[in-house]
């Protein structure tokens, strides 16, 4: 019996999928009864991938090849017919013919369902229309699909279902698979870039006794053996700095961090960060490294330094613009840091700008909110915002009086050696000339706790002790890998570049 129409051509309707599954279970049972259990095969030797058949046709014409993959199309009628087999590399057409396979094998081919995984051996040729094809000499069913792939023309379009069943999304939406392959290549290229410049990759704990290194709400868990609360890390920073104290001079880590926040197009509660620290350099060196790294990944992985991101045409080939935090506030918010010294100042300007400030948050958090609302929407082309105020930079070194004077800042303006990189109105990177004065660091962290900053509830005494052993001047950098991939691939939603994004539990 040919079930092609029943299972492979009709659109799915509510309640139909369970009926199709039962038909496939019946097929599986019949195969197993006949001694042809498709799940008994432990391996299948392949000589080629699907994409190589067309790419190397001149060499392979008339030659025998062995392929394996998922059956994605089947057009079998009478004594012959065509299909498509797909593996990670792509698809290639296959041809079933009774004179080659024999009558029994052809009837077995007709019983195949879309989504079955098969292995085959056959000869490479071109059809009369010039289509590169493999004529099947024999085939083996390697895994039987029991579910039903989304209907051909409408596909898997429900966004929530795509993320929940990413495995189906990858099967039917090959652009998703290619995007995630590019993500992996980009991470590998970042590693090669840093390794080639003398950085050492390390791994540090994800469970922290104290939440620190960034301003964010943590996820909390309980360690039974230690009878104590622990936190999933919100940053990698403080352990890497301990390594610099210990004698390493260039270290980095690429790993997951966790922040207990909402989900939107540019935020996911667990995401991938690159953090690095480089002894005896400052934030200007890190700025140059960041620009070089970003441009390198765009060129080597995504093959272009010009990127279309939604309505924006971004150009990473030109030197990135540098704008002082104070100048950006003057231009886009109409107020300077000299005018924003107290909470009353912030409330006054927020009222003028019609910005709702976060409730029960301190000065730094509210100043940052005005910046996010008024400045960030204007930061489209790659732009470094530099010289942030101390109030929102608890781990950055204060700018010296001489450097403030040279930059044109008032003597009483408290700013730091810090930059953030923005593109397409999103923050991509954050960097400091790192604070290495343990006394100043203690005072800043105490202020952060008093200022009710998110996640700041307890001093990390071990980190402060480490600093007292002497931490050299250095530059640090954090880059959100997911956002970087979003921008360089022109992908508008962060969950499209995360393989298994977090979703509300059903």
Please tell me about this protein's structure.
There is one protein chain. The protein is α+β, with helices and mostly antiparallel strands and about 500 residues long. The chain has two domains: about 5-155, OB fold (Dihydrolipoamide Acetyltransferase, E2P) (Beta Barrel), CATH 2.40.50.140; about 170-320 and about 380-495, Bira Bifunctional Protein, Domain 2 (BirA Bifunctional Protein, domain 2). It contains 18 helices and 18 strands. The protein has helices at about 5-10, 15-35, 50-55, 55-60, 100, 105-110, 160-165, 165-170, 175-195, 235-245, 285-300, 325-335, 345-355, 365-375, 400-405, 440-450, 460-470, 480-490, and strands at about 65-75, 80-85, 90-95, 115-125, 130-145, 200, 205-210, 220-225, 230, 250-260, 270-280, 305-310, 310-315, 320-325, 385, 420-425, 425-435, 475-480. The strands form four sheets. The protein has an eight-stranded mixed sheet with strand order 6-10-11-18-17-16-15-14, with helices on both faces. Strands 1-2-3-5-4 form a five-stranded mixed β-barrel. Strands 7-9-8 form a three-stranded antiparallel sheet, with no helix packed on it. Helix 8 crosses helix 9 (about 175-195), helix 9 packs across helix 11 and helix 13 (about 345-355) runs parallel beside helix 14 (about 365-375). The radius of gyration is 29 Å and the shape is elongated. About 35% of the residues are buried. Mean pLDDT is about 90; it is low at about 1-15.
């Amino acid at each position: 019996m040919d079930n092609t129409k029943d299972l492979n051509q009709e659109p799915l309707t509510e309640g139909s999928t369970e009926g199709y599954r039962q038909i496939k279970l019946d097929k599986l049972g019949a195969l197993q009864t006949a001694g042809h259990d498709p799940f008994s095969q432990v391996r299948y030797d392949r000589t080629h991938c699907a994409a190589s058949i067309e790419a190397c046709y001149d060499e392979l014409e008339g030659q025998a090849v062995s392929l394996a993959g998922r059956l994605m199309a089947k057009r079998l009628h009478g004594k012959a017919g065509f299909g498509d087999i797909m593996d990670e590399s792509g698809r290639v057409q296959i041809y079933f013919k009774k004179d080659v396979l024999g009558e029994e094998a052809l009837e077995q081919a007709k019983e195949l369902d879309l989504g079955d995984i098969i292995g085959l051996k056959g000869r490479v040729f071109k059809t009369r229309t010039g289509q590169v094809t493999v004529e099947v000499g024999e085939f083996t069913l390697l895994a039987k699909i029991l579910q039903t792939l989304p209907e051909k023309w409408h596909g898997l379009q429900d966004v929530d279902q795509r993320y929940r069943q990413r495995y189906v999304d990858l099967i039917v939406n090959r652009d998703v698979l290619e995007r995630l392959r590019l993500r992996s290549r980009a991470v590998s290229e970042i590693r090669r870039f840093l390794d080639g410049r003398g950085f050492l990759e390390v791994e540090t704990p994800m469970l922290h006794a104290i939440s620190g290194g960034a301003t964010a709400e943590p996820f909390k868990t309980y360690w039974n053996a230690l009878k104590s609360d622990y936190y999933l890390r919100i940053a990698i920073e403080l352990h890497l700095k301990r390594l610099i104290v210990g004698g390493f001079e260039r270290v980095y880590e690429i790993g997951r961090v966790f922040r207990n926040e909402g989900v939107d197009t540019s935020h996911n509660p667990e995401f991938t960060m690159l953090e690095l620290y480089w002894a005896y350099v400052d934030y200007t060196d890190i700025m140059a490294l960041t620009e070089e790294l970003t441009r390198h990944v765009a060129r080597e992985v995504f093959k272009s330094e010009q990127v279309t991101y939604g309505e924006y045409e971004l150009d990473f080939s030109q030197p990135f613009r540098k704008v002082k935090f104070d100048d950006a506030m003057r231009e886009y918010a109409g107020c300077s840091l000299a005018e924003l010294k107290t909470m009353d100042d912030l409330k006054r300007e927020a009222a003028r700008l019609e910005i709702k400030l976060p409730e029960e948050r301190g000065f730094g958090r509210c100043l940052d909110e005005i910046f996010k609302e008024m400045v960030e929407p204007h930061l489209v082309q790659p732009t470094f915002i530099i010289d942030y105020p101390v109030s929102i930079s608890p781990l950055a070194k204060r700018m010296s009086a001489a450097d403030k004077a040279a930059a044109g800042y008032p003597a009483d303006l408290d700013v730091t050696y810090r930059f953030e990189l923005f593109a397409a109105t999103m923050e991509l990177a954050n960097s400091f000339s790192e604070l290495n004065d343990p006394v100043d660091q203690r005072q800043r962290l105490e202020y952060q706790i008093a200022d009710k900053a998110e996640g700041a509830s307890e001093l990390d005494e071990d980190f402060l002790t480490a600093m007292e052993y002497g931490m050299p001047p250095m530059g640090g950098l954090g880059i959100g890998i997911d956002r970087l991939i979003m921008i360089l691939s022109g992908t508008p939603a962060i969950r499209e570049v995360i393989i298994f994004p977090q979703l509300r539990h059903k």
